[in-house]
Amino acid sequence: MSRSVFTGEREYFPDVGAIPFEGRESDNPLAFKFYDAKKVIGGKTMEEHLRFAVCYWHTFCAKGADPFGRDTQVFAWDDAPDAMTAARQRMDAAFEFASKLGVPYYCFHDVDMSPAGADVRESERNLQTMVELAAERQRATGMKLLWGTANLFTHPRYMNGAATNPDFRVVAQAGAQVKAALDATVALGGENYVFWGGREGYMCLQNTDTRTEQENLARFLTMARDYGRSIGFKGTFLIEPKPMEPTKHQYDFDAQTVIGFLRHYGLDGDFKLNIEANHATLAGHTFAHELQMCTDAGLLGSIDANRGDYQNGWDTDQFPTDLYDAVTAMMVVLADGGFKTGGLNFDARVRRESVDMQDIFLGHIGGMDNFARGLEIAQRLLEDSPYQQWKADRYQSFRDGKGLAFRNGELDLAALAGLAQEYGEPVATSGKQELFENLVNQYIA
User: Fold this and answer.
1) 252: annotated binding-site residue?
2) Is 268 assigned to a binding site?
3) Is 109 a catalytic residue?
4) Same domain membership, residue 341 and residue 430
5) Above 60 in pLDDT, residue 368?
6) What DSSP letter does each residue of 139-196 carry, written as one string?
7) Where in the sequence is the domain holding 350, given as residue range(s)?
8) What tens digit of pLDDT does each residue of 240-282 get?
9) Average per-residue pLDDT for the chain
């Protein structure tokens, strides 16, 4: 779909035009060096492969605050006489920014797009008003909604969780928010709906009935799925794993934990996973590991593209500039056949010290260029290098004979023991880890 740059009554980024592709040799910081949206890689354009999205919360709501200091960034769209006027200005800024950047998608939490009201009905009216404006902006620019979600962690009522809260009245409030956010997502043609359980866990095991909380969480998700389908949502429901922060123990700790949860409660037919790179780091995993666990289970949905700081113990949500991470992540995505309804959402924010409006563009440009490079390198590794053949050869013994019989479930344990006696002590076979690592580096160079 062709897209156009949006500017409303006021231009919030007047010093920045549409970001062009100028190639590797360009010294223009406001130009793509590697992301050429229409370049064809493996039968699809870069834009079709990567499906980039801008997130509403970090980019237009977060203003540099961290656990130790107040906001440092000043946004012109926040200068307004009331919350709804500010919300309209913020939306104009968001569509101006995203359309100048040239991304096809955006993502939002309900309270990022629309201010909460004094009660449930006022909050819903505010959101409906902003959804109508967002629909107009989508038509004007050709942009689409990758996913919507409800913020069930910021408000003080959710201090003990949302769907897992021990107070049913809080669970009801969470249900009202999710219903309204699902209505908004469907109205805007959203391709996915995400659940991020920011406080769905516990701080103290002694005061927590974990069985009840997890059963209530599954019941809540089931109700949300049923409602979404009843109003015509045909997209994918997504769970985003996160191991800690703010709770000591999250019920959605990592990909395998979530996969087990979904299968246990029979939700894996409608739900997949939204993997965030920084959350993988906090769980003690690599980004590629979390993606691989999802693809092994057939449950990879979408990606929040960012990175953490290995010297910090919290979710720093930095822009993804690590090329190795991008390459190994895209190898997993491509081997799985690419995104279906998901994409790469920049759940990232510029640093506290980055206070110029151009810095927001620079962060996204760097992330998009990094994943464009990662895509090209990953495609070459999978198609042109011996990588896949080497990997397959490690498992040659399961392709025929007794190894194949084992894989097919045709042997019992006694037969396995008999074969061990027949074979004798196996000859050690090298895993060739260094060879694989060197090959990846060779293609990155």
Assistant:
1) no
2) no
3) yes
4) no
5) yes
6) HHH--EEEEEE---SSSGGGTT-STT-SSHHHHHHHHHHHHHHHHHHHHTT-SEEEE-
7) 40-383
8) 999 988 899 999 999 999 999 999 999 999 999 999 999 999 9
9) 96
